[in-house]
Amino acid sequence: MSAPSIFDELVGQSHITEILQGAVAAARSGEESQEMTHAWIFTGPPGSGRSSAAVAFAAALVCPTGGCGTCQACRSTQTSGHPDVEIIRTEGLSIKIDEIRELLTRTSWAPSMGGWRVVVMEDADRMTESAANALLKAIEEPGARTVWLLCAPTLHDILPTIRSRCRHLQLRTPSTHDVTEVLEKRDGISPAMADFAARVSQGHIGRARYIATNEHVRSNRAQVMKLPLQLTSIAAAFQAAQTLVDLATQEANAATDARDEAETQALAEAYGKGATGRGMATGGAKAIKELEKEQKSRATRAVRDSLDGALLDIATFYRDVMLVQSGATDSIINIDIIDEITAFAHKTPAHATVKKINAIMETRTNLSHNAAPLLTIEALMCGLA
Fold first, then answer.
1. Among residues 71, 51, 26, 175, which one has the least CA distance to residue 119?
2. What is the DSSP letter of 111?
3. Distance between CA atoms of residues 150 and 287, nearest Å
4. 271: exposed, middle or buried (Cβ count in 10 Å: 0-12, 13-18, 19+)
5. Contact 88/119 with Cβ under 8 angstroms?
6. Total H helices, total E strands in the chain
7. Which of 3, 108, 339, 381 is deepest in the core (most CB within 10 A)?
8. Residue 189 in 3-state DSSP?
C-alpha cells in the first residue's frame, strides 16, 4: 500500500496527479528540468477540483517530504495559514489592478521558511484586463523561488500572453461513481443519498456534498425542478421567473448575511468601538464603508452564482426529456421525477427540447455578462413556455 499523499484528495484526476508529483520531485532535486516551471494554469469544468489540485500542489512544494498531507506545512496550506502560500479567492465580480499590485509587492519577498513562495489564484478568469497585464509582467520576469498557479474554467478565459508563458493542466469532471465513493468514504453519507447527490450535481464534488448534507438545499432544488412543469402560460412564466430569483436570493443571503455581520462587527471592534465607551478611531467609518461596498459586490456575485446553479438544474430536466425522446434512458439524472419527465417528453417534439436547452445556456452567458437577473430570467421563462 502506497504512503498517504496530499494528492489522494483529488478525485478522478490520476493523469494530473502524476504530472504534479513529477514536478514536485524535480523541484526538490534542484536540477534544471522541464518538469518544474514557475507558472501553471489549471482548467476544468466547475467542480472538477481545479483549485483543490492547485492548493495540493502548493502544499507539496512547501512540504518537507513533498506532500505527505499530514504535516504542519500541508495542513496550514490547506487552511490558508502558511506564510509562503498565498491563496487568492475573490468573492466580488472581478479582481482589480490594485489587488494585483499589492499581491506583487508581497510576492517579491523571499520565502520565509525556505523552499518556495507559491501564489494560487482561484478565479484568474475574473481579472480585469489591466490586472491581467500587471500580472503578466510578474510572470514574464519571475522571482527565482516564486510559483504562480492560476485556475480558470477554460484556457480562453486567460489572456493569450499569460497563457503562452504557463504550463497547462486540464482536469476532467469526476464520474458519478467516483463522487459517490468519496461522499460515502470521506463524509460518511448513506449510499442512496450519495448516489442521488453525485448524479444531480453532475460530478461537482463540492455541490454534491452541499446537497447531501443540507435538507433545505434539497427542498429548494425540488422546487426549482418543478418549474418547467408549471410553464403553462405567459402569466405562469412570469411567476416561475420570480420564484426562481427569490429562491436564488434566499440561498445567497443565507450564505452571506451572518458572515457580513461578523465581519462588520470585527472591523468596528478593531477600530476601538465599544472599548472605552467612545466611538471608533479615525478612519473607522471609512473602513466600514469600504467593507460594505465589498460585501455588496460579494452578495451580487452570490445571487448570480446561485441562479446559475438553478439554471443548470433546469437544464438537466430538459436533458432527461431529450434522453427519453431518443430512447436512451440509461443515464437519466433526475430519477426521482422520471414519471413527470416521461409524460412531458411524450407531449413535446425533440427539436423544441434542444432549443430550450440552448436558451438556458444563452441565459447563463447573459447573466455572466451582468444582465439584470429578473428581466433575463423572465425572458427565458417566456421562451420556455
1. 51
2. P
3. 30
4. middle
5. yes
6. 15, 5
7. 381
8. coil
